[in-house]
Fold this sequence. Notes:
107 residues; mainly alpha; two-stranded parallel sheet
Amino acid sequence: MKRGGFGRAIGIATVAVLALGLVAGGAGANEKGAKDDKPARTESKVNINEATRAQLMKLSGVGPGTADRIISYRQAHGPFRRAQDLEKVEGVGKGVLEKNEGRIAVK
């Protein structure tokens, strides 16, 4: 029996589709598509009494200047007793606390 024609075309098309699938999503793709390309959002808590400048800047609304002021305040006045004490730092208001609810730790 002669092989080729339609059957061969389907075989080639199948290989092409599988190859494209590996390139597009690869083994890391989940069932709903290649959503593994998104960077994982880190939702870890930031201990405001020990955090470095870079760690403080991971909080929403805290830039380099605010992070520096938090560290300066902490050095001048001692450790924060509660997250709300951040409002004593110039440039930190309720909005920053609300944006970071559940992400600020005081240890």
